[in-house]
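thought: fold this chain, then report.
action: predict
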Amino acid sequence: MSLPGFIETYRDLIATPSISSTDTAWDQSNQAVITKLASWFETAGFAVEVSAIPGLVGKYNMVATLGEGEGGLLLAGHTDTVPFDEGQWSKDPFKLTEEGDRLYGLGTIDMKGFFAFILEAVKDLDLSRIDKPLRILATADEETTMAGARDIASRQHIKPDYAVIGEPTGLVPVFMHKGHMSEAIRITGRSGHSSDPSKGLNAIEVMHKVLAELLKVQQVFKDKYNNPHFEVPSPTLNFGHIHGGDSPNRICGCCELHIDMRPIPGVSTNELFMTLKTALAEIDKAYPGAIDIFHLHEPIPAYSCSESSALIQTAEQLSGNKAEAVNYCTEAPFIQQLGCDTIVMGPGHIGQAHQPDEYLDLSFVKPTSDLLSSLIKRFCLGPIT
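observation:
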């Protein structure tokens, strides 16, 4: 492995902004990153396909393929990053800074840097021995809608046997994670003068009743569902944001609550959503037309891979780490829809993601490179002749 070449690739990726955000003031195209990756993988001998994400301007996926047919290994990652906290970074987020044993920059572990590891691993292999295809997937908008992974899943044009998503897990194989749901509950009342509350319908008062029912739902989740693989074994319901009214001397005409729910494997996003609606049914009857419940984004299902999978067993052996479950979510449930055993495993730690001064510890470089090389040899290369 050439460390200077590896760092230069890293530097180029970090210097190419690709923020994904629901705030249009922050949101950016990922086309420049995709263009770089396409060029690099073409130079490495891959056949490259770049596709626009339907309905999204400036958002692209890339699939690079070495070898022919179905099966083999898919190495996947997303090209976008979260926004950054201006004033809280001590370094330029878009300039790779090498300091001590760390590489600082936005996307160093979450997760544009993973593609630099793949490129270096490929350089060190005898690719004439390709027996089953090696594919590289680079997606758009993982940090918001997961539109890139959803599009790949819907197209079903690649059929790997195994997939590894290089999110920062400390090189611990992740075989299970929760899903993610962001839901809004909007109460529309009738505003009026505060001197006579009976002349209106106070949305905050109705929301108070809603909150009481949702606290019961939290307990229902704990009592009804359990998966001991997780540190938090049941689905969760978190109150994340609430806003209502505009003046103390007006009856509040609108109040809106945003909640987060995290389904576990075996519990569908629809089941949790219907539990929510059922819990509020009596309030809905009492105040016809006042309650609206809707998704803030399309729900992300939970994911799990069989612990008996050859991919998990190989990853445990190569990494020296036992596979585990985590509470956050990734593109895994969508990649898995391609029909492949799927794990999440990559350099860096999730605790450094979405933080000022995000960094890669250089102690991950050799273990990650060796791990990727071994996975490619195991699942894509034929015997030495």
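thought: worth noting. The longest strand covers residues 236-244.
final: tokens above.
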